[in-house]
């Protein structure tokens, strides 16, 4: 059996949903289909939630989001199909009620309950359309299946219970029908919705593939496969025909957006191949990710924006000791900062992290008595995997570098975000 994951761009409108149906028609059962929220719905729901949390008017934005989905339904189902309208409107009714009753509290917990509606609505629409095209389908809510803790917005999976649930509930269905479910979501034992991290639908696909011992997982993207750079920022990118789990997980860790960082481990543990293919050209080969080790790869250029460089200096001119580092790491871990780069000198320690304004303020309050803290925001972090001197010169020219570091195979630097036009590799 196979698992397919379709991202937001692949279900962004009615034409895209029809294209998904065309792709699925080329394959036979058993097949699990994991879908993301449609288009930019997650961004829209984040905006709605932040407006509500800040006490600002949000109804117009919410209605726009609902109308967007109803417009897709109208295009897909010219003859009114009350069941799909009813199911989607029920989700938005839940969302309205939740927002109306929302009280200040755990921001991240509320976030998960609101933003999760995007995947639920998307999967409902896709399942109804496949059923209308005479596919035998079942819609499954993944939240009771994927058991997690309550680490809101980045929940940790309870693998034994998740595997048991998926094998018991999903395996019997696959003999006769397609199973359509949601990416990105999980659930606690208290029936609260969790999310697995932004862009976490890839990880969901890997969870189902692992638990069902799938033949393969295919992630359908709007690019030809796994490229050596993001075509939004670089021209003349090159596709890797094949790449190892090891190289993929390193590039994902450094910020390559093709694959969610957590996707590889469960696949590698069971030697399940990962295919990255284009939904715009489904017959093309794409990229195969598996156990095979590659010869030296061409340089990969990885860009992460919205970065923050934080420097901790000692107050009494003693050295940055292991004890000081322990205090800093403990605070960073408690506040769930992800360290993308770190470097220390005799009297200071610097980290580059994803920028979170509230968490940064809490960090400063927690450590300001022990350390002198300086920070810069609005930065870029570039990583060159498998670098050579030419690739370093190409990427660093005319940039103001605040921090840089290199190892045997990886070169990284933090710079100001002085936007440049697309660079040709």
What can you see in these coordinates?
The chain has an 8-stranded mixed sheet with strand order 3-4-2-1-7-10-11-9, sandwiched between helices. Helix 1 (14-24) packs across helix 3 and helix 2 runs antiparallel to helix 3 (59-76). A hairpin with a 3-residue loop joins strand 16 (401-406) and strand 17 (410-416). It contains 13 helices and 18 strands. It folds into 2 domains: 2-214, 3-Layer(aba) Sandwich (Carbamate kinase), CATH 3.40.1160.10; 300-424, VC0802-like (2-Layer Sandwich). It has 425 residues and is an alpha/beta fold.
Summary, kept brief:
The protein has 425 residues and is an alpha/beta fold. Helix content is 37%, strand content 24%.
CATH class of the largest domain: Alpha Beta
User: What is the arithmetic mean of pLDDT?
Assistant: 94
**Backbone structural class:** alpha/beta
Q: How many independent structural domains?
A: 2
Helix content: 25-40%
Distance between the termini: 39 Å
The biggest beta sheet, please? 8 strands, mixed
Helix count, per DSSP?
Answer: 13
> Regarding quaternary structure, how should these chains be classified?
single chain
* CATH 4th-level superfamily of the largest domain: Acetylglutamate kinase-like
Write the layout of secondary structure elements.
Blueprint: E1 2-6, H1 14-24, E2 31-35, H2 41-53, H3 59-76, H4 82-101, H5 107-115, H6 117-132, E3 137-139, H7 159-169, E4 178-182, E5 185-187, E6 193-195, H8 201-212, E7 216-221, E8 234-235, E9 242-244, H9 245-254, H10 264-269, E10 274-278, E11 287-290, E12 300-314, H11 322-334, E13 339-344, E14 348-354, H12 357-367, E15 371-385, H13 389-396, E16 401-406, E17 410-416, E18 423-424
Parallel strand pairs: 1-2, 1-7, 2-4, 3-4, 7-10, 8-18, 9-11
Antiparallel strand pairs: 5-6, 10-11, 12-14, 12-15, 13-14, 15-17, 16-17
Helix pairs in contact: 1-3, 2-3, 2-5, 3-4, 4-6, 7-8
